[in-house]
Amino acid sequence: MRRAYADTRFGQVHHVEHGAGAPVLLLHQTPRSWDEYRDVLPLLGRTRRAIAMDTLGFGASAAPEEAWTIELFAEGVLELCADLGLTSVDLVGHHTGGVVALEVAAAQPSLVRSLVLSGVPFVDADRRRRVAARPPIDEVDAPRDGAHLAALWRARLPYYPADRPDLLDRLVRDALVAGERVEEGHRAVNAYRMEERIGRVTAPALVVCGEFDEFSRPDVPRLTAALPDVEATPLEGVGVAAVDADPVQFAAVVEAFLGRIDRRSGNGAPAAARAAAHPEAGPAGVPTTRTETEQ
């Protein structure tokens, strides 16, 4: 994997790459970093130029002083794409990253060849009202004895596999890097006016969601109904931590979808050759027509 920084008007944006070929850009959830895709990158990198970036304010990317919004995060994505010379890209986003990916596709449709939206809530006026008084998710007081580390761990514990404390280690580390502004990523999602922007998306999309992700799974039917060219499939046996808890399943579902997009774009032979060369990358048995995610 290769680490690099892009120079943007916001400051430097950190990203990590693996592989070569058609670019697929991976966007993480709050409060994570590129590390959420650490085990996905080499899998997608078998056939593509897989790039995982740190959203503005997270990981090793610059943290703008202005208020953090989904639109701001999307501008950071566009700045990275411009610096890398990307004129067509497949976007994959998980939770916050999925909302950012949707905004990128709405703001610059010609850039986005396809979208994978993982665990993405449908944010409209009703949701904004419902979450307005919700307590913070990752924002905890920081006493001198370090008790906030345990508080953050306990807050996230119900949403992570019981046998994978290493995943919580990685989340806590990323949350500490984001620091006092960690909650702004969640607030940005809950302030976003998705209902006004989703109609601008023209790229074909795959909506995926962990079967135990109670935050986003109920919104899958509304999300798929609002997109013009969409497939949907569940991610089995996972919840909020769908990406890093089961990177093999996640990468296989993404690769299968992108393979179908390749064939629609007239690149079917290379895609088929790659699949034959790497059968372990996963089945292509995700639905090829619009379906509803199992509830």
Compact overview of the structure:
The chain is α/β, with parallel strands linked by helices and 295 residues long. The chain has twelve helices and eight strands. An eight-stranded mixed beta sheet has the order 1-2-4-3-5-6-7-8, sandwiched between helices.
Features:
single chain, 295 residues, alpha/beta, 12 helices, 8 strands, 17% strand, globular, disordered C terminus
Structure description:
With 295 residues, this protein is of the alpha/beta class. The chain has 12 helices and 8 strands. An 8-stranded mixed β-sheet has the order 1-2-4-3-5-6-7-8, with helices on both faces. Helix 2 packs across helix 3. The protein is globular. 47% of the residues are buried.
First-residue to last-residue Cα separation:
37 Å
The sequence of SSEs as H and E is: EEEHEHEHEHHHHHEHEHHH
What is the overall number of helices?
A: 12
Average of per-residue pLDDT values: 90
Major sheet: arrangement of strands: 1-2-4-3-5-6-7-8
Assembly state of the chains shown: single chain
Poorly predicted parts:
269-295
Q: Report the helical percentage.
A: 25-40%
- Structural class by secondary-structure content: alpha/beta
Largest sheet: 8 strands, mixed
User: How big is the Rg?
Assistant: 18 Å
Number of strands: 8
Beta-strand percentage range: 15-25%
Outline: globular
